[in-house]
Amino acid sequence: MTETDTEADDRPLLAVRLDDLFKTVRPKGKHWTNAEVAEELKRANPELKVGGVYLSQLRTGKRSNPSPDLLAALARFFGVSVAYFFDDQVAESVLSQLAAIEALRQSGVRAVAMRAAGMKKENLQAITAIMDQYRQMQGLPPVTDSSEPE
After folding, report:
1. b/e string for 52-88 if b means 16 or more Cβ within 10 A?
2. What is the chain's pLDDT, residue by residue, as a tens digit (150 residues)?
3. CA-based angle 86:90:95, to the nearest 5?
4. What is the pTM of this model?
5. Residue 28 and residue 66: Cα distance in Å, rounded?
């Protein structure tokens, strides 16, 4: 999610970040409904008070003050730090990693990554330069990843 997406979204930041997790993270390889997540959270922590409707309200911003225990359980379920909900830098890092994972899910991207694994740094830089040229020819925005192939 870009900064302008967040600015245009009138939901509280917690709602936006929780909703992003539901939409992009796939624990056990699947998309989860609010009710399914609530059941998993209660299975792991039976004294936790949570239901699908309440999670839906948190995601839409109709409710905005979950207990620290619920936030911790959600963070564990989705595999992120609790700081994701409050710290902009942590959230940005998590969202960047999620975007990379989503890109890998796209058809063909995994095949390119598999072929690149183990190649020399110089070869990866040459391949990256070629891919950047093709992105430009297709009118795609440049990739702003600051990490160079190692």
Report:
1. eebbbbbbebebeebeeebbebbbebbebeeebbeee
2. 444 444 457 888 999 999 989 988 877 778 899 999 999 999 999 999 999 999 999 999 999 889 999 999 999 999 898 999 988 899 888 888 877 777 777 667 777 877 888 899 999 999 989 988 988 888 888 887 655 444
3. 105
4. 0.63
5. 24
Query: According to the model, what pLDDT value does residue 145 have?
Result: 67
| CA–CA distance, 13 with 90 (Å, rounded to integer) | 13
Instruction: Dump the DSSP string for 80-110.
Output: --GGGGT-HHHHHHHHHHHHHHHHHHSTTHH
Nearest CA to 82 out of 91, 71, 93, 92 is that of 71
Between CA 30 and CA 121 the distance in angstroms is: 35
Map residue 21 onto helix, strand or coil. Answer: helix
CA distances from 30 to 36, 37, 142 (A): 11, 11, 30
Q: Which two tokens stand for residue 23?
A: 């939409």
Rounded distance between C-alpha atoms, residue 53 and residue 71, angstroms: 16
Name the one residue in this structure whose structure tokens are 């359980």: 73
